[in-house]
Design goal:
Elements: H1 3-15, E1 40-43, E2 76-79, E3 82-85, E4 99-106, H2 114-128, E5 136-144, H3 149-161, E6 167-171, H4 177-185, E7 190-192, E8 206-208, H5 228-237, E9 244-249, H6 252-264, E10 269-275, H7 287-296, E11 300-304, H8 307-319, E12 326-328, H9 336-339, H10 341-347, E13 351-354, H11 364-376, H12 382-401, H13 407-416, E14 419-420, E15 432-433, E16 443-450, E17 453-462
Parallel strand pairs: 4-5, 4-6, 6-7, 7-8, 9-10, 9-11, 11-12, 12-13
Antiparallel strand pairs: 1-5, 2-3, 13-16, 14-15, 16-17
């Protein structure tokens, strides 16, 4: 993969505000992210098993096909511009009579705790016997790609060829096509946060827990643009007659983001300005940016910046007397405001938009999640929540494949027969395949920091077409 393509992908991701940067050491007052660690592979073989196209009416025949007779099983399915069929020899790689072997990979610098969330969810699957045939699930290998595309590729290849895993949970901004195409060619289902191209058609082995999130941005035929970025604010204000001010990072990603916002908020922008990134020296004097806010007095300020920029601007804009909401996409890190007084003070009163359900323990899904974490002694930080929901999806799809689990029965159950996840109240929105190789349920929520804790400012809502 050429560097220019890598930079283009990373810029687009930041523009869509889908890559969430975790903060560094809690004692680091400037909130900068810790340096990326050395890329490592941590074998776990000896560990004990854990104790958008137009939507199609479900009642209509599949696209371009005649209705089937009773008892006849489809061997292919067309959805929009894409056809799904089993044109490969099914494999039982990683599947025995007793266990299913899985791997995991992430950028630990951005998604710390990813494996903890996976283990929390796999633990429940084993305790409750969720897989047909009494099989348990093992996380046998974990890779931190160190934000390096080649390490990401080699990690995936090692998990398949050396550790013989059935599937992989992966969330990384460097899971580029060389990795995801390799996984597809080897019939390796992979789940994760669906913001990379491999989670979208024509790849039919990548499954985002929020569908093909960036399909429209990546030019996937039939994909729809995300509407949640706007709609959550229309809901918040109770109308669409709002004026928005936006600060973007002063880099290629920020410039791509500014162009996106020009289109998205056309006619409603008070300003669409740029601020220095941490790597570019950071914000040494926030006065100019605060004055921009006070001069234009928008209804809403959005910070499409890096983590350090969001922290600095939230604190200084709030101190200026501006009374509107100041929001970003990066600072929902459960436990952070209470663990660091300086960061907690900087975040106080500010908002964060999130694509995983907020930890509202009045909701059944969150009660279950917290119990799962407690069972393995883990904490639900942001990266671990991404891992948890990635594992939840993998478990549900493997269960749908039935007792005779192999790559063919998995593909048949999900891509051809059609599959939809089930969630308790307060969990993720349902994802459906094959539709969500192209589109997404487009779900989002919002939290606010109040008294050094996150409270739900807007419930987790799906704005996409439920009948897709």
């Amino acid at each position: 993969m050429k560097k220019s393509l890598l930079y283009k992908l990373l810029a687009l991701l930041a523009a869509l505000t889908l890559v969430v940067a975790a903060c560094g050491n809690d004692d680091d007052d400037d909130g900068a992210a810790a340096p990326a660690p050395e890329a490592t592979e941590a074998p776990m073989d000896d560990a004990e098993p854990m104790d958008d196209a137009e939507p199609m009416d479900d009642e209509e025949p599949m696209d371009d096909e005649e209705p089937m007779d009773d008892g006849e099983m489809a061997t292919s399915r067309t959805w929009g511009a894409y056809t799904y069929e089993i044109d490969f020899e099914p494999s039982t790689r990683g599947v025995s009579d007793d266990t299913v072997r899985l791997g995991a990979m992430t950028q630990d610098a951005l998604y710390g705790g990813f494996a903890d969330g996976i283990e929390a969810r796999l633990g429940r699957a084993n305790r409750d016997g969720e897989l047909p045939g009494g099989r348990s699930v093992e996380l046998v290998h974990f890779v931190d790609d160190g934000s390096d595309p080649q390490t990401n590729f080699e990690g995936a290849r090692s998990m398949v060829e050396n550790h013989e895993v059935f599937g992989i949970m992966v969330t990384s901004a460097v899971s580029l096509p060389q990795t995801t195409d390799y996984l597809a060619e080897n019939q390796v289902p992979f789940t994760g946060w669906g913001f990379m191209p491999g989670f979208c058609a024509p790849n039919d082995w990548g499954f985002g827990f929020n569908g093909c999130l960036s399909g429209f941005a990546f030019g996937v035929e039939g994909a729809d643009p995300l509407v949640s970025v706007q709609n959550i604010w229309y809901d918040f204000f109770g109308n669409e007659d709002i004026v928005v001010g936006i600060f973007n990072s002063d880099d290629d990603a920020g410039r791509a983001g500014a162009a996106l916002y020009e289109n998205l908020w056309a006619g409603k922008l008070a300003f669409n300005d740029f601020v220095p990134t941490q790597t570019g020296g950071g914000i040494t004097d926030a006065t100019r940016f605060v004055n921009t806010v006070l001069e234009h007095e928008p209804d809403l300020v959005i910070l499409s910046t890096d983590f350090a920029g969001a922290i600095t601007l939230k604190a200084t804009i709030a101190a200026s007397g501006y009374e509107g909401p100041v929001a970003d996409y990066l600072t929902y890190v459960p436990g952070l405001p209470g663990s660091s007084p300086d960061l907690g003070q900087a975040l106080e009163g500010g908002y964060a938009v999130t694509q995983v359900p907020p930890l509202d323990d009045s909701e059944p899904a969150i009660q279950q999640l917290l119990a799962d974490y407690e069972a393995v002694g883990a904490f639900p930080g942001f990266g671990s929540l991404v891992g948890y929901w990635s594992a939840d999806l993998m478990i549900q799809m493997m269960a749908a494949a039935g007792e005779d689990l192999n790559t063919g029965s998995f593909y048949q159950a999900v891509n051809i027969d059609g599959f939809e996840t089930t969630q308790q109240s307060g969990g993720l929105g349902p994802v459906k395949w094959p539709a969500d190789h192209v589109i997404a349920p487009d779900c989002t929520g919002m939290v606010q920091v109040v008294d050094a804790d996150y409270v739900v400012a807007h419930p987790f809502v799906c704005y996409g077409d439920p009948n897709r």
